[in-house]
Amino acid sequence: MSQRTPLFDAHLAANGKIVDFAGWEMPINYGSQIKEHEAVRSDAGMFDVSHMTAVDVRGERATAFLQQLIANDVAKLGFEGKALYSGMLNETGGVIDDLIVYRTSWGYRVVINAGTTAKDLAWMEPVAARFGVTLTPRRDLAMIAVQGPNALAKAAAAKPEIAALIESLQVFVGLPHGEWFVARTGYTGEDGLEITMPAAEAEPFWNALLAAGVAPAGLGARDTLRLEAGMNLYGNEMDDNVSPLAAGMGWTVAWEPLDRDFTGRRTIEAEKAQRSAGGAGLLKQVGLVYEGKGVLRGHMKVVSEAGEGEISSGTFSPSLQVSIAMARVPLAVKLGDTVQVDVRGTLQPARVVKMPFVRNGKKVFE
Amino acid sequence: MSTQIPSDLKYVASHEWLRVEADGSVTVGITDHAQSLLGDVVFVEVPGVGDVLAEDDQAGVVESVKSASDVYAPIAGEIVAVNETLADTPDTVNSDPYGAGWFFRIKPANAADLDRLMDAAAYGQEIGA
């Protein structure tokens, strides 16, 4: 059964083309994905991300709960408002979901993906019971991401009550304002905000953002922007069978302290040792750039001298005007190498590059 | 937004349109409905002039940011012209699908093949327009 966010009518009013996304009726674009992409890179765009789920965590042992649950260490959150990106792993070291945790006055807020919400909660609840913490999925909230070089100024203009808070936010910090929660986070490689508010206040805020000159942007643009930014998408770059080490998420795993026995640790620790020893058969994540005809897509086969790999996400990059992709390839493949990609039946050369491809509107790879 | 289905063209279910030219050749492109489903077109591959195709043979590829789709020969025949400008301006397929965004011209092997194609009303029904 498909679900609608509190902004569904606003999407129709803005000519949004609605598609099914993880059981939600969401706008894929409002006319042109490329124009929406460019609006975010050059000015400001907004995305309805209300389908994601904020889960509040309360209880004396909330910190211990999260230290068990996720691969990154919430003890790193040195002050209220600080955010942390992490994978939540299963026992075999696969990624159940990737998420953001905020330290809050009541404990923590965890923001999880739309398509994995039911699975995540089913995983989290027994652990929560063991630690005596309560989980509150905040289905009463809506979330709008405002992204781009002018996003902060335009969001402040649209909602003057939160202007001072926006001004005060460091990158990757989120703080409440009454029932609202304003975070300087995003998924586009631009400066920006993810703003959470009571469902009934979403549409007036959306309309105020429109009036402030923020362009509505659909899930299509969200995908090309995040790919240019080299950011993982759950279900593409990782899933229950892909380890964070194969998905370029090694930096999100907190190995110290050594005695923090988070779920999945033993498996990925063994994998880490194998990788250090050369890791035959193991894969790592790289970026690919393809300047030939056609477009790299997910699941295309990658052929290298060291063996085969696979593209996890590929697209045409509106900012770079070439095709780019994220791929999992054998460990021996190096930056600067040329690999072959099976593009619709013929092997085509693509260059291996360090991600991200684009940051703050500019090409960043060599 | 209503989709455009010009009444002077013929259509096939795989969303190609056909226009019979004065010299008997047939111009082929993809419909407004098809371009709208694809989204921003970023790359088009057309067949070679002189290629002889059977009905439903692959006659090219149209790639949008979102996905790649094959383009098929809606009738059998020989390719007599292709739209070279699509290599540099593939987005013409979005902005002018029935005009400057045409793909190729084919000389029908059998003119009677044209009689079996859908008219605008039938195509409109096909896509639920």
Automatic annotation (TrEMBL), chain A:
Where in this chain does the record put each Aminomethyltransferase C-terminal domain?
284-358
Instruction: State if rRNA-binding is listed as a keyword.
Output: no
- What InterPro entries does UniProt report for this protein, alphabetically? GcvT, GcvT/YgfZ/DmdA, GcvT/YgfZ_C, GcvT_bac, GcvT_C, GCVT_N, TrmE/GcvT-like
Q: Which intervals hold domain GCVT N-terminal?
A: 7-256
One family from Pfam that matches here is: GCV_T_C
Keywords linked to the UniProt accession: Aminotransferase, Methyltransferase, Transferase
Residues bound to substrate: E194
Signal peptide span:
none
- Which reaction(s) does its UniProt entry say it catalyses? N(6)-[(R)-S(8)-aminomethyldihydrolipoyl]-L-lysyl-[protein] + (6S)-5,6,7,8-tetrahydrofolate = N(6)-[(R)-dihydrolipoyl]-L-lysyl-[protein] + (6R)-5,10-methylene-5,6,7,8-tetrahydrofolate + NH4(+)
Q: Name one GO biological process term.
A: methylation
Instruction: Give its E.C. classification number.
Output: 2.1.2.10
What's its job?
The glycine cleavage system catalyzes the degradation of glycine.
Q: How does it assemble?
A: The glycine cleavage system is composed of four proteins: P, T, L and H.
Q: Which family, according to UniProt?
A: Belongs to the GcvT family.
Q: What is this protein called?
A: Aminomethyltransferase
Task: Name the species this protein comes from.
Answer: Chitinimonas arctica
Automatic annotation (TrEMBL), chain B:
Task: State a single Pfam family of this protein.
Answer: GCV_H
| InterPro entries the UniProt entry points to | 2-oxoA_DH_lipoyl-BS, Biotin_lipoyl, GCV_H, GCV_H/Fam206, GCV_H_sub, Single_hybrid_motif
Q: Residue limits of the Lipoyl-binding domain?
A: 25-107
| Keyword terms | Lipoyl
Q: Which GO terms describe its biological process?
A: glycine decarboxylation via glycine cleavage system; protein lipoylation
Q: Name one GO cellular component term.
A: glycine cleavage complex
Q: What does the record note about the cofactor?
A: Binds 1 lipoyl cofactor covalently.
| Reported cofactor(s) | (R)-lipoate
User: Keyword Nucleus: yes or no?
Assistant: no
Residues with the N6-lipoyllysine modification? K66
Q: How does it assemble?
A: The glycine cleavage system is composed of four proteins: P, T, L and H.
Instruction: Name the family.
Output: Belongs to the GcvH family.
Among HAMAP family, the record links this protein to: GcvH
- Protein purpose: The glycine cleavage system catalyzes the degradation of glycine. The H protein shuttles the methylamine group of glycine from the P protein to the T protein.
What is the protein's name according to its record?
Glycine cleavage system H protein
Organism annotation: Chitinimonas arctica
Lineage of the source organism?
Bacteria, Pseudomonadati, Pseudomonadota, Betaproteobacteria, Neisseriales
User: Could you tell me the gene encoding this protein?
Assistant: gcvH
